[in-house]
Each structure stands twice: as structure tokens, then as C-alpha cells.
Amino acid sequence: MASSSTSVPAQPQSFTSMDKDIEAIGSHCRYTYCNQLDFLPFRCESCKGTYCLDHRTETAHECPQAGAWAAARRKQQLTSSSPSSTSKPTLLTATQCSHPQCKTYINTLTNVGVSCHNCNRQYCLKHRLREEHDCSKLVPLGARTPSATAAKFDAQAQTEKARVAFARLRAWGKEKQTAVLPKPKPASNAARVVALNQLKKSAKGDDKIPADKRVYLHIEAEASSTTSKFPKADMFFGQEWSVGRALDAAAKQLQVQNVNNSGGGEEVKLRVFHVEGGRLLDFSEKVGEAVVSGNTIVLLRGVGPAVPDLIQI
Length: 313
Known about the structure:
Helix content is 26%, strand content 15%. By secondary structure, the chain is an alpha+beta fold.
């Protein structure tokens, strides 16, 4: 008796039997005159159709909705952008220059921000330099601030240092002023004119200075505080010269070691003492305003900053 279920012989498998499913791998180009099967088709984001390599652009396949994708993307960018990029910057939406007196907004399209590596702050182009925002007086952001005890000791040390320098200058003025004072000046006007003419004949200086713009002075180097090859000299300077410039010229003429421009503390700096005025001259003062022709100035070292009217003559 034959079995009711008949076994179906298995058909032999081959690679040719996959031909009927080959279209499932790729997609036909939807362009009317192409219809090419492409295994890596391209999708148009405007009309949502698939196309081959040759017709992938909107112009090539004559897209009925050309430009729709670009318009939709532009609209999305405008709606999703932050208010700070489209509106005027404010204190809430922009960064302001760290200078306390500057209200410029930085890191915008018109103003670039510059970061200072010393104080770790950002400034506008006007205050980007250290001298413009007093960088030396600022505590760097993120730096460890000194304790109250350490700050107190530093303040006491600075005060004591200033007191010592002040006392040293007063002592020098009382003890040495008589020694460096010039000889008694002539009483008559004629004698003073003769003495000034002799000073003009012996004085040395920059020949480029006009004769009517010169100030003639006696220059001395105080022996107890500095060492010079020539202890005295007669020189002339320009009226518009600063005291610091005159000091450099005098130190060069007397061959005194001058390290004022090389840094260091007050103990190694040279200062200019005006004998007739009884005070130290500040480096920024004008020679024509601080002294007059015939006066005497003395080069001192390590006497501290300029303090006016220390010695009463």
C-alpha cells in the first residue's frame, strides 16, 4: 500500500536560482527615461525619490520640488538658533571686557576677545596689554590667594623697608649735606654771572641741544654710597629732558655703575638729590622745572624712592 504522503524531491540549489531576488538588493532609478537598477541608490530629500548616480541631483532628474529641502533646512536653523546670535548682546547673553571701566562686549562678530595669560582674564583690544589693565595689581583667576597672616607679614615687611630707607636718607641729609654743598655763591649779580659763564665753558653735554634750551649743573657722586671714576663734573642737559634721562647721562659721564634699567630693588638703584632743593628728584620730572642753571645735584645709591622736602635747608 502506497503511503498517502508523497515526498517531494528537493530541487538542486545553485547560484542561478537567486536571479529572481536580485532586485531586492538595489532600487530602480525613478527618472522617467532611466529606470536603471542601482545597488547604491541616492535619495532626493526634496521629492523623497531614489535615483542613480547620474540623476542624483535635483537638476539631473528635474525634481518637481526643487529647493524644498534647502528651504526647510534654512527655516529650521533660524527657529533653532539662540537669541544671542541674532539679537544685540547684553550682560546676560555676551561676555564683557574684564576692565572695570570698560563696557565693551567681546567674543562677538565685531569685537574679538583677547585672553591675558597672567591674570587669566579676557579683555577687548583696547585693554589687551598688561599696562592697560594693571595686570601686576590683579590676582590671577584660579590662583591660590595668600592667607591673611602671610599678607600681614608682607605688608609689615614693606613698611619696615620704607621706614629704613626714609631714615637712611634723613641721616645722610643731616650728616653729608654740608660736605656736598657747593661753595658760598657770590653775593653780587655780576659775580653770579661770571660763575655761570665759567660753568658754561667747562660743562659738557649733547651738542645737539640748542643753547637757549640748556640747563647747566654741577654733578657729584656721593662717595659713601657709590663708586665713580670721576667724582665731579660740570654738565648741561635739555630743559625738556626727564630727570631719569639726565641721570643716565650723568652716570655715563662720571662712569658710575647704573643698573636702574636692569631691574632690582631700591638698594642698587641710583637716585638724584637736589642740594639746593633738599630733596630727591623723581625720574619723571622735567629738568627745566626741577632745577636751574648753577645748581648742584648728587648721585646716590640705595636711598629709596623720591620723597619731597625731607631736608629743611
